[in-house]
Amino acid sequence: MGMETVQLDAIRSCLEGVIPAAVATCSAEGVPNATYVSQMQYVDARHVALSFQFFSKTRQNVLANPQVTALVIDPVTAAAYRLELLYLRTETAGALFQSLKAKLAGIASHVGMVGVFKLQGADVYRVLRVERVPGPELKRPPPERNLLNALRQSGERLAACTDLDALFDQLLVQLAGEFGIEQALLLMADEDGRRLFLVGSRGYASSGIGSEIQLGEGVIGVAAQYRTAIRINHMTSEYLYGSAGRGDAAPEAEIPFPGLAEPHSQLAVPILLADRLLGVLCVESAQDLRFGYDDEDALVALATQLGLQIALLQQQAECGAATAVLLPAGGPVPPSSGQPLELRHYAGNDSVFVAGDYLIKGVAGAILWKLVREYQAGRCEFTNRELRMAPELRLPDVSDNLEARLILLQRRLAERCPSLAFEKTGRGQFRLCVARPLRLVEAEG
To answer: d(Cα 406, Cα 384) in Å, to the nearest integer?
Structure first.
């Protein structure tokens, strides 16, 4: 009786790199060779990728004879499966290569082989057949959570949000409540798509709101750059978060990033609308092997809905801004009392300091400086539309990120400068609330 055949997507737990896969090849002369490979990665229901690290006998055989047999073992049940593979190509760049590279870096760090496991390429194979190898196996424990139900519940609550501020908060609540993920970060792409700025976080000593990550930097930046989910299940310094760049004119212009000092599991998922990068959702844990393929699938699906919801709310805000009435420059300003609050602005990078402490920079800093100057001139009511049209802000003709920038600024003010606050007065309209007299200083340099 032949061995039982199974579907590749049913054995993805065997492809996490916990137990290396054994690979058997054969030379053109018919001489067999067997070895272990550091990583076999699931690509789709008919393909896997193997890590290519150096030109070995296995590599020579594969180039001469593309037929390969692999043995993989489930790390939980000890069930073994034999895969018949056919070598197709080697990828040395792109999303698949970067994903495999990140996983390999985590494995290398876990086994003390940093610098040895250097990925040369991702060898892509077609899976011709998967067979269950007869033998005893342990019973698989039930999953801790029903991720499909978690996705459904979270999706319903996200769909009920009527503005971006509520959407960002609800996302973090659902990750903790439905998915059991305590550490999470939400970042939005900036106007030119080169950096990401943090608009929401959960599970850290400080929120880090306003901190930034460059594309290609750490697990978040790589996921953003290559528009692909990046998942690492062991601690690796190669993919730790970098810090925000310091401003040219203001040496203290930096917000520390709030990620775990030593994350043992990381999963970063890009938030996309078609091929446009909106942001990145990142979750992490101090536990090894916290996130598997099923977690990745669920969060990719959640990020897909999130991207659509963000686009819808941005469109609604755009429509509201287009119909909002531009307010006159004059008008009564509510009185404020107490000691004057000094705001210092550096034009070089639009950084703003409050009472000597760094607050914000970039587009958000330019927005704040415009608002407080207008306030001093006698205004407290503003519209999103006028901000979009303000030439000094240097926004693109259509800036989908304006609402996200305002949320970032509002949250940063709530943390570091409660004397200034935004109050929503209608769709695309808000009021600047000032509790103390302001002293504005335009700094040199």
So the answer is: 9
